[in-house]
Design brief:
Elements: E1 7-9, H1 17-52, H2 56-105, H3 121-159, H4 162-204, E2 208-212, E3 237-239, E4 244-246, E5 253-255, E6 266-272
Antiparallel strand pairs: 1-6, 2-3, 2-6, 4-5
Length: 274
């Protein structure tokens, strides 16, 4: 292993918690609106039909088709809007963090200051990929919710379980959808930040990066904790474009910070003397 003096660490690229908080709040509000309105309508129809002896299945099917169509369009529109905004916010945050790291090395380091308005081809591709991934995940919340909800409604009718059973099922699926929305916001906002970080660091002229453990999570992967003195994950310092070896027992793979589900690890720029 080389000595610590063989490289100089730049300022770590730490994500802005405000972006994740904003994204979580927006997705939560979107799912909450869908869940509350749908649950209310479904239960009202079930209760009225039970009292009047009407055809509850036909009424529920009509209502669910109407609600499903409405929220499919809403989620399609909002998914693109929110995903684009989140990725744009992360791009601005990463650009500021990289500029600060470049300035910290000084003018003689051979690095260049990046401009947020300039979009290299690779960065445009990364931004587009992050947006598309988020759009698909957000839209899947709606489709999964209605698939499960419709199943619960028809089981209640066919099996005769009644409104009490239906209400519990709807509350359960609503809670699951909200939890999934929060997980998507947490995981995807960090993944977008890391993908943009890689492009921006390369653009600035960095040739090496170091794995930095994110910490502060309930699902800490202890083998991701970096210890330069002991070598750490894949000896700590990597070339741009190179992944780190994952030392998990029984698994042979190479990974990047934030690539695994809910990994909060991040990149740190390195100026290395070859």
């Amino acid at each position: 292993m080389k000595k610590k003096t063989d490289f100089i660490l730049g300022k770590p690229l730490i994500p802005n918690a405000g972006v994740r908080s904003w994204y979580t709040k927006e997705l939560d509000a979107l799912v909450k609106k869908m869940d509350e309105r749908t649950r209310k309508r479904v239960l009202e129809i079930f209760e009225k039909a039970a009292k009047s002896g009407g055809n509850v299945e036909a009424q529920e099917r009509m209502a669910l088709n109407e609600l499903n169509k409405y929220y499919a369009e809403l989620f399609k529109r909002k998914a693109k809007e929110l995903a684009t905004s989140m990725v744009s916010k992360q791009n601005r945050n990463v650009s500021s963090a990289v500029r600060a790291s470049v300035e910290g090395f000084g003018a003689g380091a051979g690095l260049k200051t990046i401009k947020t308005t300039v979009m290299p081809k690779k960065l445009r591709q990364d931004l587009k990929a992050a947006i598309n991934q988020n759009v698909n995940l957000i839209r899947s919340i709606h489709s999964q919710y209605f698939t499960r909800l419709e199943g619960a409604v028809y089981r209640s009718i066919i099996d005769g379980n009644g409104i009490s059973f239906l209400q519990k099922e709807l509350l359960k699926y609503g809670a699951e959808s909200k939890r999934r929305a929060r997980n998507i916001a947490k995981d995807q906002s960090h993944k977008a930040y890391e993908a943009i970080s890689r492009s921006r660091l390369e653009e600035a002229g960095f040739k090496y990066w170091q794995w930095e453990h994110g910490g502060g999570t309930k699902t800490v992967r202890h083998y991701h904790i970096l210890d330069v003195e002991k070598g750490g994950l894949n000896h700590g310092v990597h070339k741009m474009g190179e992944k780190a070896y994952d030392p998990t027992k029984g698994i042979k793979r190479e990974i990047l910070p934030g690539e695994l589900p809910f990994c909060s690890c991040r990149m740190r720029p390195v100026l290395k003397f070859d």
